[in-house]
Design a protein that fits this description.
Length: 305
């Protein structure tokens, strides 16, 4: 793990970007988890101010005793509950200027137990890699949390879905990505119990509604859900408004796409929204150095309790 105190360029650049936006609540994805939240506390210190820290053990890197990806070998990164080199590799975390309360954690939900789950199958129609795998295979590649913000009578529905690629004809990752997104629709349907009145879905869905070779129905359906609103955070490129949130290389990757989302419930008032993209100012270089994913933000009219 990198020593945050030594000031790695990417870490310093990410801190510059976050300080420029000055969020009240921040979701971090692909942030390594450790039991004492030492890395998260060090990053919060780098940002300055007084932050509340929240993180749970992610499924990423949690090794299983089974060959979950069907390659005939055990102990590989794809044989963990979520892809990872070690337990906690690339987890999630929340920084908040106001106290948070853990409400629900769906990270241990088995994939097969999601109503309407679309499990991968072999060419002969049998479950891939075998039926026994789904006795332990969790849906969340990282985690699905419901975290309440009592001060604002608001709940955060956060997640970080697996990329829908890097698999075979069974489309294991593509199907899992879709069901990770659909979990929130099932949650809002009330199949897991009571649903908060005011909420916002936040996270990296790793799926663009308009671009990409894989099935995009899950994110299209979520964006069209009448219980949600899509502020469409965007940025200006020349004279054209764009909504991409990540910039992968065109030569070796899919290019710029919209994969990260903040979707408030319909009863919240959205005041503004945006994506922090490189510009001609001094911050532009930091945005690029911080990594391909851009910080997206949504301002919601506060209702304090």
């Amino acid at each position: 793990m990198r020593d945050i105190r030594r000031g790695e360029p990417e870490i310093n650049a990410a801190a510059d970007v976050i300080r420029a936006v000055a969020p009240d609540i921040l979701l971090l994805t692909n942030f390594d988890y450790d039991a004492d939240l030492i890395a998260l506390a060090a990053f919060a210190d780098l940002l300055g101010d007084d932050w509340q820290l929240f993180a749970r053990v992610p499924n990423a890197g949690q090794m299983t005793p089974m060959d979950l990806n069907g390659d005939g070998r055990l102990g590989g990164r794809d044989d963990a509950q979520g892809y990872g080199r070690f337990a906690g590799d690339g987890g999630m975390a929340i920084l908040s200027r106001t106290p948070l309360v853990a409400d629900r954690d769906f990270s241990s939900l088995l994939w097969r137990d999601l109503p309407g789950a679309r499990l991968p199958v072999n060419a002969d129609g049998a479950l891939f890699p075998d039926k026994a795998a789904y006795d332990i295979q969790r849906l969340s590649s990282n985690g699905h949390w419901v975290v309440s913000v009592p001060r604002y009578d608001l709940s955060l529905l956060v997640f970080d879905a697996t990329p829908p690629v890097f698999d075979g004809p069974e489309d294991r990752n593509g199907l899992r990505n879709g069901d990770e997104i659909r979990l929130w629709s099932r949650y809002l349907d009330g199949v897991f119990g009571d649903v908060p009145a005011r909420f916002a879905i936040m996270g990296n869905a790793n799926l663009d509604p308009d671009r990409g070779e894989r099935d995009r129905r899950a994110i299209i359906d979520l964006l069209a859900d009448p219980r949600l609103q899509d502020p469409e955070p965007g940025w200006m490129d020349a004279d054209r408004r764009r909504v991409e949130t990540v910039s992968w290389p065109d030569e070796t990757g899919p290019g710029a796409m919209r994969v990260s989302y903040i979707l408030p419930s319909r009863n919240l008032t959205v005041m503004d929204a945006g994506v922090l993209w490189p510009d001609d100012g001094a911050l532009g270089e930091s945005v690029d150095i911080a990594g391909p994913h851009r910080l997206i933000w949504v301002d919601i009219e506060p209702t304090e309790h």
